[in-house]
Amino acid sequence: MSIKTSPSKNEARSYSHLYAASLICKICKENRVIELCHIVPVKLNGSGSPFNLLCLCPTHHKLFDNGKLSQSEFESVRDKVHMALKFWSLNEHYAMAA
C-alpha cells in the first residue's frame, strides 16, 4: 500500500499519520494506492487539516475533483464533505470580518 501526494500537498503529508488506521478509499475500500484529497481545494483557501482531507483511490480522487462521482459514491463521503464545507465557510466568514 502507498500514499500518493503531489508537491502541492506537503501540508497534507504531515497529517497522513492520522489516517493510519483507515488507509482505504472511503468509497470503494481499495487499499493499494491511496491519495489524500482536499475537499476544499488549496486554491480556494482549503487547508491540509484532517477536516479537509479524504482518503481516496486515484480513480475516485479524480472523479471527486471533477465533480463526477455518482450519487451513491458521493453518499459514502457526504457527511465529511458537508462538515468540511461548514468549517471552511466559517473560516472564510471570520477572515473577511477581520
What is the strand and helix layout of this fold?
Blueprint: E1 2-4, H1 10-14, E2 33-38, E3 53-56, H2 58-65, H3 71-75, H4 78-97
Parallel strand pairs: 1-2
Antiparallel strand pairs: 2-3
Q: Output the strand order for the largest sheet.
A: 1-2-3
Q: Tally the beta strands.
A: 3
DSSP summary: helix tally: 4
Q: Strand-residue fraction?
A: 5-15%
| First-residue to last-residue Cα separation | 43 Å
Structural class: alpha+beta
Structure overview:
It is a single chain. Helix 1 (10-14) links the parallel strand 1 (2-4) and strand 2 (33-38). Strands 1-2-3 form a three-stranded mixed beta sheet, with helices on one face. The chain is elongated. The longest helix is centred in the C-terminal third of the chain and has 20 residues, at 78-97. The chain has helices at 10-14, 58-65, 71-75, 78-97, and strands spanning 2-4, 33-38, 53-56. The protein is of the alpha+beta class. The protein contains four helices and three strands. 39% of the residues lie in helices and 13% in strands.
